[in-house]
Write a structure and sequence with these properties.
354 residues; mainly alpha
Length: 354
């Protein structure tokens, strides 16, 4: 048994739940909602989560995460720009400490010898200083919540209890049955939170050179079904991070939503082109992160919309090979069963669930 496995056995239940939450592996919707509420209301709990984030970074750098955890760390945990910065800081500090240690070993020997008991522990002190510096740096980044994170939190509050579009998008990991509405956007449950979300995310796009603020603002416009504005933000994000699997998946979801909200009788060519673009971006996302569930779920939806039932069945089965426990998986099974039962009128996931 490896040291990492032994450490995992020693973790308490809450720590395990938080690690799963941070890696995007927590399937219990009640647990997810409880964690997010506590993060907004309890500063001490937020500090505890930040500590576990730091532990995950250390475990990743020490190769103590298993293959699935490493994949989720890279594709879910590091979706936050601040976590990427903290990972870089920790790497730099480790490198600095290693270089300092190597330099101390290269100091030439003297012609005299100081008795061992009188050696001052410079090396130990330097190591301790490095650790303190790392802890301070990580704490500083933890304490600095970004406008992007605030904007995403407010977006989720604004659309609490609703699923803005049928496809899975990174801003809304929790499962909600989809109730189809064409044309106008889904009802916003908290208008003030929506206004705060837009303000935070617009500020974030002005203050950073990264892709995540543009992606997050695009998702807000997508949820509002303001497709032109959404694509503007996604294009900016793609120009910065074309190999971001989460971003490619969200763009694919946007094209799928556009097709769903286009008059299929009078604009068939536009619907077909949107679905082709959706499939292209979803395949790119799957190629970048084969175990990421969102693009595989959306690919199956897209193939259904393209009236390709055999390919859709295969896509749902591939999805269920990677996610068999969540409520998203339950919907996938219902959709697969509906395909197996033969052609029927289109139904929303809410109707399928009934």
């Amino acid at each position: 048994m490896s040291d990492g496995e032994k450490e995992m056995m020693d973790l308490d239940g809450e720590t395990m739940e938080l690690r799963k939450y941070l890696l995007g592996a927590e399937a219990d919707e009640t647990v997810l909602a409880g964690i997010e509420l506590r993060l907004l209301a309890d500063g001490n709990f937020a500090d505890e989560v930040a500590t576990i984030e730091n532990d995950l970074i250390e475990d990743f750098l020490d190769d103590d995460l298993n293959a699935e955890e490493s994949d989720r760390f890279l594709n879910h945990f590091l979706a936050s720009p601040e976590r990427k910065e903290r990972l870089k800081l920790t790497k730099d500090l480790r490198k600095y400490s290693a270089n300092a240690d190597a330099a101390s070993r290269e100091i030439p020997s003297r012609s005299y010898r100081v008795p061992q008991q009188h050696h001052f522990p410079w090396k130990a002190l330097g190591g301790a200083f490095g650790v303190l510096l790392a802890v301070f740096g990580i704490w500083w980044f933890s304490a600095k919540q970004s406008d992007t994170d605030r904007g995403l939190a407010e977006m989720r509050k604004a659309y609490a209890g609703t699923r803005p579009i049928e496809a899975r998008i990174s801003a809304f990991p929790n499962y909600i049955p989809y109730s189809e509405t064409r044309g106008p956007a889904a009802a916003v449950s908290d208008v003030a939170a929506h206004e705060r979300a837009e303000r935070y995310l617009q500020d974030a796009t002005r203050e950073t050179s990264g892709s995540k603020p543009y992606q997050a603002l695009g998702l807000l416009y997508l949820s509002d079904k303001k497709f032109d504005l959404a694509f503007q933000e996604f294009e900016r994000a793609l120009s910065i991070s074309p190999n971001d699997a989460s971003l490619q998946s969200d763009v694919g979801a946007t094209y799928l939503a556009l097709a769903r909200n286009t008059d299929s009788e009078n604009e068939r060519a536009k619907v077909f082109e949107s679905l082709k673009e959706s499939l292209k971006h979803l395949e790119l996302a799957i190629g970048l992160a084969p175990n990421m569930p969102e693009p595989r779920f959306n690919k199956a939806l897209c193939l259904e919309a393209l009236k390709m039932p055999e390919q859709a069945r295969s896509a749902w089965r591939e999805y269920l090979e990677r996610d068999s426990q969540t409520k998203w998986a339950d919907e996938a099974r219902r959709r697969l069963a509906a395909l197996d039962a033969g052609p029927k009128p289109e139904s929303s996931s809410e109707e399928i669930e009934r």
